[in-house]
Amino acid sequence: MTADVASALGVPPEEISDDTNLVDAGLDSIRLMQLVEKWRAEGSENADFVTLAGTPTLGAWIAAIVGPWTTD
């Protein structure tokens, strides 16, 4: 996901942290929709435009799409 977002923004993945505000970093609604469609096509059923737009950070997106990480 980090690589996809970085590519959409035209920046190296290292420039994006879990708490980077992606809207402030230049992500617009068109690019977000493209990402959502890409992730849905790859099988990420939880990729939802409204949810992701409401919390525009990579960390929140990973939690919303992949779910919380556990060590169990």
Q: Tally the helices: what do you get?
A: 4
Binned, the helix content reads 40-55%
Overall body shape: globular
**Major pleated sheet:** none
Which residues form runs of ≥5 with pLDDT under 50?
none
Structural class: mainly alpha
Percent in strands: under 5%
Number of strands: 0
Q: How far from one another are the termini?
A: 23 Å
Mean pLDDT: 92
Radius of gyration: 12 Å
The run of helices and strands is: HHHH
Summarize the structure.
With 72 residues, the protein is an all-alpha fold. Helices cover 49% and strands 0% of the residues.
Describe what this molecule looks like in 3D.
It is a single chain. The model has no long low-confidence stretch (mean pLDDT 92). It is built from four helices and no strands. The chain is mainly α and 72 residues long. 49% of the residues lie in helices and 0% in strands. The two termini are 23 Å apart.
